[in-house]
Amino acid sequence: AVPHGAAEARAVIATAPVLELRGVEKTYRRGGFFGARAVVRAVHDADFTLRRGETLGLVGESGSGKSTLARCVVKLVEPEQGTIAYHGTDLRPLSRAAWKPYRQRIQMVFQDPYASLNPRRTVGDTIAEGPVTHGEPRGKALERARELLRLVQLDPGAMDRYPHEFSGGQRQRIGIARALAMEPELLIADEPVSALDVSVQAQVLALLAEIRARLGLTMLFITHDLRVAAQICDRVAVMQRGAIVEQGPTSEVFAAPQHPYTRQLLDSIP
Ligand code: ADP
Ligand code: MG
């Protein structure tokens, strides 16, 4: 079932565009065997607008360009074309230095909590690292890390422990706390629950939904799993081979899919 009430309540405040992508194109060129070149048009025709307080789901099967599109927003990937407007400012032409203040406002949560957490850093320091790098005194940042642990429903005793001592779901909570430490306005979650067991997925999704409401976060939520999208996204954009083929309110897209590819995805849900 697709939740309605919360989405409608948020729709009232969701007016100002936070992020607008227009004409973004990214092509990967790889050297292949015997000098052959593989060209992958990872993203093209993928315009969308994300409004304040809204959660937009980017859905589509593996390889459809979801991560590339998300990574363009945080400059981990440099697209050849297009505008990436954050509150009306195009981030694409900005130098790394000019772009730095925006980086605080846009944070990412990744799929694999193992890969994205430093095993030699305590949980407290992991969460405090971003603010400390941006000039916050360490004591103050650690104090805030402790509050964030409470927000993600982890015991404060976690502060002095290491990531490997935690389960996958707990590590994802640590990853979320680390992203929130920068007080972002926009959270990009790239397959944040895909590595987790289904029961743990539901817990982490519930936590994200609660935090989003409490902090008024705007979210770009990436998943290959439409059932996951149905649980948390106000709107969904369906990607196929680098293009958004359909987008709209989650309930509408699920009830009456317009594009054959969307219908195919929905039919494949057991
Ligand atoms: P998704 O997140 O939807 O699985 P990706 O954005 O990761 O899709 O990938 C889109 C396409 O771009 C795929 O064909 C993938 O193989 C290719 N691709 C992604 N990253 C790179 C890279 N760093 N170098 C070359 N090709 C890449
Ligand atoms: Mg991906």
TrEMBL record:
Membrane topology: Peripheral membrane protein
Subcellular location: Cell inner membrane
Gene Ontology molecular-function annotations: ATP binding
Domain ABC transporter: 19-266
Keywords associated with the record: ATP-binding, Cell membrane, Membrane, Nucleotide-binding, Transport
Protein family per UniProt: Belongs to the ABC transporter superfamily.
Protein name, UniProt field: ABC transporter ATP-binding protein
The species this protein was found in: Belnapia arida
Included stretch of the parent chain: 254 to 523 of 532
